[in-house]
Each structure stands twice: as structure tokens, then as C-alpha cells.
């Protein structure tokens, strides 16, 4: 009984099939974080452009949206 339990634990430790799923999850999380950072930076620049265009159209009036 103890020998069977020991061999089952050793087999479980040597099993690496779950490791690849974890690696894919980490890669997906890294890609998602990079996309979020990029979109945030682009969104800030686009908002500044829209405010600039709005102020130009309104004769310098503030356009804080």
C-alpha cells in the first residue's frame, strides 16, 4: 500500500503536462498587460488631440471632456 502511494506521488511530481498550460497563461497575461499599457498611452495622446481640435474650433475655449 505504501509502495503504491509512493509511486503515485513520484509519478505526479514527474508529470509536466500542467506546466505548459501555466506557461501559456503567463504569456497571455503578459501580452494582455502590454496591450493595456499601449492602449492607455495611445488613448491619452488621442484625447489631447481632440481637446486641441475642440479648442481650435471654439476659438480657444476650454474643452475638458
Q: What features would you highlight for this structure?
A:
83% helix; rod-shaped; mainly alpha; 65 residues; 2 helices; single chain
Write up what this structure looks like:
The model has no long low-confidence stretch (mean pLDDT 84). The chain has 65 residues and is mostly helical. The radius of gyration is 27 Å and the shape is rod-shaped. The chain is built from two helices and no strands. 83% of the residues lie in helices and 0% in strands.
Secondary-structure element series: HH
Unreliably modeled segments: none
What is the rounded distance between the termini?
71 Å
Instruction: Give the tally of β-strands.
Output: 0
Percent range of helical residues: over 70%
Shape: rod-shaped
Write the layout of secondary structure elements.
Blueprint: H1 2-14, H2 17-57
Quick description:
By secondary structure, the protein is mostly helical. The chain has helices at about 1-15, 15-55. The radius of gyration is 27 Å and the shape is rod-shaped.
